[in-house]
Specification:
With 115 residues, the protein is of the alpha+beta class. The protein contains 3 helices and 5 strands. The protein binds L-tyrosinamide.
Length: 115
Amino acid sequence: MANDHDNDQDQDQDIDQGPGVGVVQKTAPRTKRPSLYKVVLLNDDYTPQEFVVWLLQAIFKKDAEEAVRVMMHVHNTGVGICGVYTYEVAETKVAQVMELSRRNQHPLQCMMERE
Ligand code: TYC
């Protein structure tokens, strides 16, 4: 990854060849950027707008204005992105949305999609 300064994590290995002698060998980078996943919200006719706005603030850390904007986008288009996260974070947020919706008896649906 010669031109990739963001992820330039080549590691040098010092091969032991006795006292005073060493060969520095460059190995391939062992780290990769994690895959990212969009968490998307689906529209329905029953979940109250206020609940969706509250959820976007509570789970996705949106401020009030952004939460209303995302909720209205989902309401008007059928689908919208709440955020982009690594796999485990996205999975946790989807589970939190589904559990809060279920507990409040709303049919709100949320899913994750590989970016
Ligand atoms: N369409 C819903 C209503 O008018 C509001 C809503 C918005 C529901 C976004 C779900 O993901 C959603 N009550």
